[in-house]
Design goal:
Strand content: 25-35%
Protein name: DUF3568 family protein
Order of helices and strands: HHEHEEEEHE
Largest sheet: 6 strands, mixed
CATH topology of the largest domain: Double Stranded RNA Binding Domain
CATH superfamily of the largest domain: Sirohaem synthase, central domain
Number of domains: 2
Structural class: alpha+beta
Pfam family, one: DUF3568
CATH class of the largest domain: Alpha Beta
InterPro entries: Flpp3-like
Organism: Acidithiobacillus thiooxidans ATCC 19377
Strand order of the largest sheet: 2-3-4-5-1-6
Shape: globular
């Protein structure tokens, strides 16, 4: 709460200090301040994940059913590799929904969900609950320690570098 208050004051100070600047500079400063406030109010975390003791195909089908239950329009699935699928959808408010499924082992799948630009924890938790119901299995915040993670056959230097982003387990 204290951190939220500090960021709110910081955003307000940035907007007020930009007033004498005029033009595009003031507009950019105000936009940055507003973005900081939105980021802090949303918890600042965009991705939420959980592990399910089920195959990727089964979790993919259950994810599509959870999308339907939540009123999310399913746009399709991209198979990035044999061990990684990306499901995309759109909320009724127009936010993009991305669920990345990663095969951790034959019957263990990590489901990473991101709703909108900054993430939406309450909708992500609702998705996780519905996904668990459709699978008939409980989710876990930690990967099983007895099973090694799946390896893609992509050399490290050939893999595209993604910007780092913070992920937290669903609870």
């Amino acid at each position: 709460m204290l951190i939220q208050r500090r960021f709110t004051y910081l955003a307000l100070a940035a907007a007020v200090s930009a007033l004498p600047l005029g033009g595009c500079v003031a507009l950019v400063a105000a936009g940055a301040g507003g973005g900081a406030v939105a980021y802090v109010q949303n918890g600042g975390v965009a991705n939420f994940y959980a592990y399910y003791p089920a195959s990727m195909n089964r979790v993919s089908a259950a994810s599509q059913a959870a999308f339907a239950d939540m009123g999310i329009r399913y746009n399709g699935e991209i198979r990035k590799s044999p061990s990684k699928y990306l499901l995309e959808g759109m909320t009724t408010e127009g936010d993009t929904v991305r669920v990345t499924l990663t095969s951790m082992a034959t019957d263990v799948t990590k489901a990473n969900i991101r709703i909108g630009t900054l993430g939406n924890k309450s909708m992500s938790l609702q998705f996780q609950k519905l996904l668990s119901q459709h699978l008939g299995l409980a989710a876990s915040a930690t990967a099983p320690t007895s099973l090694p993670p799946a390896q893609d056959n992509v050399p490290a230097e050939a893999a595209p570098q993604q910007p780092s982003q913070e992920t937290i387990p669903l609870q």
